[in-house]
Amino acid sequence: MIDFNEVYIYSEQPTTCPRCSGRTEIISDFSHIKDVIQIHKCLNPSCREEFVIQDDNEFENTFKNEKGPKTVE
To answer: Domain coordinates of the chain in residue numbers?
Structure first.
């Protein structure tokens, strides 16, 4: 059963299972809705965890807008 209370953020890296770190497959893709979510299922036969991942543009933009560490002159 999918726990919708835990939502993970996805990145450009391949998605891995939060429980066993195994590879996953997309079983539902809701990229057409406002919150852009996907439901993944672990491919590890002993795990089979299902979980939700979500695109988080604010999280991504935070790192792009950082100017790096401050220097003392």
So the answer is: 7-60
